[in-house]
Amino acid sequence: MKGNVRRIAFCGVFTALAMVFSYIESLIPIPVPIYGIKLGIANIAILAVIYAIGWKEAVIVNFLRILWTAILFGNMNSFLFSAAGGALSLLVMIACYKSRKFSILGVSIAGGAAHNIGQVAMAVWLMDSTAIIYYLPILLAAGVFTGAIIGIAGGLTVKHIKASI
Amino acid sequence: MKHKAKVQEKRQHSLVRADLWLAAALLLAALAAFTVIQCFIKKEGACAVITVDGRILHRCSLNEDAEITVSGYDGGKNTIIVSNGTVYMSDADCPDRLCVRMGAVSRTGETIVCLPHRVVVEVTASGKDQDKIDGVVR
Predict the structure, then answer these.
(1) Quick check: A128 and B53 in contact, CB under 8 A?
(2) 3-state DSSP call for residue A155?
(3) Chains A, B: CB contacts under 8 A, how many?
(4) Where do the structural domains in chain B lie, given as residue ranges?
(5) What are the pLDDT tens digits along chain A (165 aa)?
(6) Quick one: which H or E segment has residue B6?
(7) How far is C-alpha B93 from the geometric centre of its chain's CA atoms?
(8) Which chain B residues contact residue A150 at CB under 8 A?
(9) Which residues of B54-88 are buried (b: 16+ CB within 10 A; e: fewer)?
(10) Are B15 and A127 an interchain contact pair (Cβ–Cβ within 8 Å)?
């Protein structure tokens, strides 16, 4: 029972952290003129929840992060994009995590790539233009690199917090 | 205990190796798709098609210089300029102005996208049906 309360408290902290990360990231201007290229620092918190608490809790934390970030700092448009990216990314990350074939680095890389695929799919659907698909290769490669950076950061985070959960 | 740590380390190594294979496979797929798009899909374009929220508003030939202002989703304004066979977004009142920073495009399949206003400018090959619908400002 006491352990359960701890886990719930940690989930709350990570939800708040993920939201702050999402917000901070929206303040940083993108250095290249292509949509969808960003570090994805909120994913550090999501990775930490998957590894330190559990994947089911990660689903809840991720859902709350996307919902509340959109309500507080975004709009319907931004909600649809982050929901598409966030949901597909988490689905792929959980699949990779459960397969036990990859470390946190690979899980994060797969998540980064899936996030950008989800966003391109949403853009194609929303704007009804298939030409947007031509951005996919660049975004896929970008997702691998940013996913790797976040994976390393996530690995370090998990290493340091695991003892206290 | 020492043995257990060694097994753990070995397992970690094989996991990281799988990570690197995954990264390499994804990058290779991205590179292959990029090459195919650059070599086989992108050709000298003839026409710019401007859509807002999926509806085609304008088709204009890249050979005729023009300045077009469209009102996008959420009431935003985008100014598109056709000049010297290329098309670019000269001004927009969206928050990020990424569309303006995307620069000029001229080859088929190339696009300028303004996500907040849901405006897409796509370069296409055929310039036959140039029915300019409304709002062309010269």
Answers:
(1) yes
(2) helix
(3) 102
(4) 1-41, 47-137
(5) 567 898 899 999 999 999 999 989 888 877 787 887 889 999 999 999 999 999 999 999 999 999 999 999 888 888 999 999 999 999 999 999 999 999 999 999 999 999 999 999 999 998 888 888 989 999 999 999 999 999 999 999 999 988 877
(6) helix B2-36
(7) 19
(8) none
(9) eeebbbbbbeeebebebebbeebebbbebeebbbb
(10) no
Which residue in A64, A75, A78, A74 sits closest to A123, CA to CA? A78
Chain B partners within 8 Å of A35 (Cβ)? 98, 113, 115
Chain B hits for A140, Cβ within 8 Å: 26, 29-30, 33
Strands (E), B6-118: 47-52, 55-61, 66-71, 77-83, 86-92, 111-114
Copy the structure tokens of residue A86. 């966030």
Cβ partners under 8 Å of residue A82, min gap 6: A22, A66, A69, A70, A74
What's B47-137's CATH class?
mainly beta
ipTM over 0.90? The verdict is no
Domains of chain A: residue spans and CATH: 2-164 (1.10.1760.20)
**Euclidean distance between CA atoms A17 and A44, whole angstroms:** 9
Give the mutation candidate from B14, B22, B38, B57 for the A interface (greatest A CB count, under 10 A).
B22
Task: Using a CB–CB cutoff of 8 Å, tell me whether B101 touches chain A.
Answer: yes
